[in-house]
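Intended use. Records like the one below are meant for learning the mapping from a protein sequence to its folded structure. Do not use them to infer anything beyond what is encoded.
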Amino acid sequence: MMMKRTLLLSSLALLVACGTSAAAASADYESKIQAALENYAAHSDEILQRAIKVGNDGTAIDSVEIDANGDVTSSPSAALYAEFGSAAVNTALDKINKEIEQQDLLEEYEESFEELTEQNGEGATTITYGQLEHWEDIVPIIAKLEDGEFLMLWRKATGSDSQGEMTLSQFVAFNDLLDNLVMAKVDFKALTKRLFKKEIPYNRLYNWSALSEDLTDKEFHKLWKKALGEDVVKGVMSYEQFLVFYDIAGEWLERDIDDVVEEEKERRKNYWVKSGNNKKEDSDDEDDDDEDDDDGYGLSNESRPRFFIADEDLPEDIKAGLESDDEDIRNEAARRRQLDPEMWTRFSYWDLHDFFGCEKAFDSPRPLWTDQQWYDVWDLYHEFIEEDKKDGPFTKVRAYQYSKDYMDLSQNAIPFQSGEKGRGLQAVRDIKAGELVFKATNNTIVFNYGHTWRKLLFAVNERDPSITCDMHVWSWVQDLYDGGPMKIVMDLDSGSLLNEGRDNVKGWDPPNVQCGLPDATRCDMDYYAYRDIKKGDELLIDYREFAFLDSWPAMGL
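Structure written out for the chain above:
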C-alpha cells in the first residue's frame, strides 16, 4: 500500500539512510537532491533548508549543483523553478523508496523465479502462464480466487492481454498484486461477518480501523461514491466494488499482508476457543491439525458450527413459539434458538426482530401508548445517551434530536385502532390538500451508527420488554440530503403510527399524505396532505418516498 509523506526536515535522515543503497535516480537533479540529503544527515538542518530556499525563493534554475558545504549553485533559467523545493524532494524520496522496495522484492522472489525458469532450459529468463498457474506455492491461493481473478492479475503484472511470458520484475509485481487481492478478500470477509447478504454497509466501512485517521468524512464519501458508481443509492458495497475501493483508497489504508494474516489467524483462534471447539491450544507440534486447514493467508477451508440451544435448555417463550399453530411464529422461534445472546453486538435488523419475538408480539392487537409511556421512553433515551458516551470517544455524535422544533400532532390527527392495519392515525378535522400535517421535530431521533440504535433497543428491552418491538418497527433508514450517508430515524411520538398506503396496488388503500410538497425536490421530513382529507379518515403515506426499505445493512444491521 502507498504511504503518505509530508516534508518534515527533522525526519528525513532515516529515509536518507535507507536511500543510500538504492540505484541512483535517473534525473540529474534527483541524484543531486539525494546527495544534499546525505550531506544534511551528516551535518545540519540548515543545509537542506538553504537548498529548498534557493529553489523556492531564489533565482530560477535549470540544473541543480550542490557543493561540499551543501550550498546550491546553478545557472539562471525558468525550466525547473516550479519543480525544485519541497515538491521535488518528495518526488525524489518517493522514487528512491520505491526502488528500495522493488529491490527487496526482487531478492525475495528471485530464488522462486529461478526454480521456475530452470524448467525452460539454461539461460531462460521468463516463465509461462501455465507455469505460474501450477506453481506449488500459489496453487492453494488460486483455489480461493474468483473466476477470472488470476488472469486479471497476470494481465496487470505483464501489461498484456495475452497469456504469453513473464519476466522476473513482472513476477514480483504479480505477487505484490496477489498479496493486495488476498488482503482485500480477508478484509471483505471480516467486514461482512454475520451479515446474511455479503455486502459492506456504509457505516461499517466508515468505522473500519484499517482506514487512516487522516481520512476526512468528505474524502471517505467521495471514495465510497466512486467505488459504488451508479449503485451509490444502495448504501452497501459488493465484493467487486470493495476491490475498487481497496485500489483507490490505497494511500489511506494502513495494511500489511503479514499483519492481515496474523489478524485472520487470531480471529480464527478466538472463534474456536469461544465456541468450545478449540484444538491443541499449547501445542508446539508443527503438524498441528489446525495448520492443515490454513492456506498461509489465514483463509480457512473448514465449516464452523452454528450456535444452537439444545431442547433441554430452551427458554419457555421459545418452546411456546415452536409449538405455535402459526407457521411464522414457529419459524421465528426456530431462528431465535440459533441466535447467540453473547453475539448481540452483531445482530442484524432481522436478527433483532427474531430475538425480541416481534412476529409473536404483533400476532395480536397492540395497545395504544399512554402519555406516561412516551414520557418514560424519552427519559430512558436521555439516560441511555449519557451512558453511551462513557463507552469511549467517537469522532461523531452517535445520536441526536433532529431539530428543536415542536409540533402538536393532535391538532390534526390522533392515534386509533385501524383494524387489520393495527394502530394508525386518524384525522380529527378536515385537512385540505397541500396543508402541513406534521413534521420531524425534537421528538425525532437520528442515529449515525447502527450499533447505537441496537444498544438502545436492548436498553429498552431491559426496562420494558413490552415496547421493544414497537420501537424496532417504528425505525427506518434514509439519507438526510442527496447522496449523503444513511441514518436511522425514529419518531418518539404518535407520528410513528402513520401506516402505509400504495397507489394503484391491489389490496392497498391509496395514500393521502406525501413527504414534501409536490414541487419539492426532497422530502426533508415535512409531511403534507396529498389530497383533501376528511375528518375521521386514516392518514396513509407511501413509505418509499422517504425510507430506504432494504438498506438496514448500510447501517451495519
